[in-house]
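Service request form, structural biology core

Requester: graduate student, group of Dr. S.
Request type: structure prediction, single chain
Budget code: on file
Notes: please return the result as structure tokens.

Sequence provided:
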Amino acid sequence: MDDVRDMIERVRELRARRAQLDAEELALLAEISAVVGDDRGLTEELTPVLRVSTREVERRIDDATSLTGRMPQLLGAMRAGELEACGVRRVLAVVDPLDDDAARGVDALLAERLTNAPETAWQPGNLAQRVRRLVEKVDPGGHTERARRARAERRIALTPGEHAVSSLEAILPAEVAAACYSRVDGMARSLRRGGDGRTLDQLRADVTADLLLGRDPGVAVPEAAAMVYVHVPVDAALSISDERCELDGYGPIPAPIAREIMTSQHSIWRAVLCDPGTGEPVDLGRTRRRPSAVIRELVRVRDRECVMPWCHRPARHCDHDHEKAWAAAGGGGSTSVANGGPRCRRHHRLKDQPGWNARYNPIHGTTRVTTPHGATYTAHRQPVLTPTCTTPVHDDVPVRDAQARRAPGRDSPTNTTDPERQNNDSPPF
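Core staff response, request fulfilled:
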């Protein structure tokens, strides 16, 4: 056990050294670029030196120039061994449309927020998500224009691969991409439940190809397969304000874009009640008779992603996990919002593996994970909407003075095999 812990610590040290070397390389590239002035000629000269493609050399020079000139504190974090080049590139992609002053503002705010942040905050996906919110804070007026420009650049790309395979990538508006994946995933799972022996990955790929080529995938799309949540404050929905909106599994989106999604003829609406003190969803408007379906859906709305600190799989593609086992000896946990959380299949299975201790508090939104070799990571769920007032949160106190919030969803019931949870109209708390 001690030997493994020492080796893991060695890996941590190597990662820090790699970050420091990445920082040294980027700083040197920026210095060379400033001296030479001709990045095109410099790119060609450095291609055999760095032993990567010419396009990759261009990216590194661009990253170096942007990092040293616009985000010096992020460069300092690299030099301290906190962040490697791959994570820096994710951050720079988010701040790229900003002018220099706004980028430096994001840099300063990010350094402040990361001062006492947990280790998982440095993971590239988590970092990019945090930076998106800071960009919106520093330059809220440009959010809509940046989104429109990016959405106008939608495209599809074919990249040849090895061993007779290629990848087909579609760059789409976030809510369209999420709905496409949900549809394909739902059809693949239907085939799997019907006895198809292909893996889910194979089924998703084959269903996608069948749909694009006009062939029959052999299964009807489940009614709720293309469900995507957009969290829109009432004021923003009514165009009274441009308060921040949220796209499930992605992050903040501009209010005008959210209104366009919301008013699409294909959208389906459901009311979501949010506590004004915490910004958390506490109930869903519903006409269905199976509250277990409502509970599962509300948990997905509330948590939005797998609860593991470094996993960003959208909750709609995760298992509904009882934090206190439903069938536990001596009286298990209830099927309720207060006892449920989304975990992707991988992390759902990992939770009960020997040595792993992964605990999620659904009420307070805190996750604490301890690995078999003693490392502990924590994370806290971000509220869906920004809280409007300070309200104490108690585990056993009913929510009062909730405000209505809206989000697209589905009103069709989800099947359950548990007769005790069918035809029950009691609230999900």
